[in-house]
Write a structure and sequence with these properties.
286 residues, mainly beta, Thrombin, subunit H, six-stranded antiparallel β-barrel, 22 strands
């Protein structure tokens, strides 16, 4: 399994969508396993979307408690599954693309009511092995002020732009690509598979660049990765938004529990990524 630096030479209330899966080797990594400063900076500008009721907010200068569930128990997983002991709670992922604007999947926030019942949490990640990720500084919790625009086509483009209640402090907006990735282009993704703390996964590429509004990749992604920024591995720029994919888990009849669905890199249906060019960014900026 390649090191992160080898595949990512950086230079610069949701409705359910079809789930995702692992292709080839499982390339998911916790942030404490990542050394590349560019990757860490990009991960810092990625948000976990929580139901607002699952974030117990404190006052200024205090910590917000995140209501998490045991991952292994919640998904009836076999003990050998990676991240079995971690907590899960996020339902989607988003990326900061302007000081107070997050890009996510359209099916994650279908209307303003959904948006306002969502907390956008930065820093939901593990800084060390065995560390709990059940709280963040209150200053890293943001809420929806406005649902700027969205689209949800099945199949097709699936995206939303959300204006937050205030500019995000201490985190830089992520840059988006102005060119389309070609078939075979290297990719990596940052997000919250199955609602887990931030995971970075590379070792992937574009399998089919022909569908209108989206492309197909072999990224290791799950439900909860919806809305995750998918980056061009050569430029470090956002190439798209993860939206749909293969079934997450398979049932092990012998152990009476579930395991990750494993596909060959060129097998199964692939993961659908909305092209960044399909997102209707304001011509004059935000």
């Amino acid at each position: 399994m390649p090191a992160l630096a080898a595949w990512a030479p950086l230079r610069a209330g949701a409705a359910a969508a079809p789930p995702k899966v692992v292709y080839g080797a499982d390339d998911r990594r916790d942030l404490y396993q990542v050394a590349d400063p560019g990757l860490l900076k990009s991960a810092g500008s990625t948000a976990a979307l929580f139901e607002r009721s699952r974030v117990q907010a404190g006052g200024a200068g205090q910590r917000a408690l995140l209501v998490l569930r045991p991952y292994g128990k919640e998904f009836n997983l076999c003990r050998r599954e990676p991240f079995f002991e971690q907590g899960t709670g996020a339902f989607c992922t988003g990326a900061l693309v302007a000081p107070d604007v997050v890009l996510t999947a359209g099916h994650c926030v279908r209307e303003l009511y959904d948006c306002r019942q969502t907390a956008f949490v930065f820093g939901f990640a593990l800084g060390a092995a065995g560390q709990a990720a059940d709280s963040v500084p209150m200053e890293d919790v943001y809420y929806c002020r406005e649902l700027l625009d969205r689209e949800e086509q099945k199949p097709g483009a699936d995206w939303a732009l959300v204006r937050l209640d205030r500019p995000v402090a201490g985190r830089a907006p992520l840059a988006v690509s102005r060119t389309e990735p070609a078939a075979g282009a290297p990719l990596f993704v940052i997000g919250h598979p199955s609602g887990l703390p931030t995971k970075v996964a590379g070792g992937a590429n574009v399998r089919d660049a022909s569908p209108p509004g989206y492309f197909v990749a072999n990224l290791d992604t799950y439900g909860g990765n919806s809305g995750s920024p998918v980056f061009n591995g050569e430029t470090g720029l956002i190439a798209g938004v993860l939206v749909r994919g293969e079934k997450d888990y398979a049932f092990d009849e012998d152990e009476n529990c579930r395991v990750s669905n494993i596909c060959a890199d060129d097998g199964c249906r692939g993961e659908d990524v909305t092209r960044i060019s399909s997102v209707r960014f304001p011509h004059g900026g935000f």
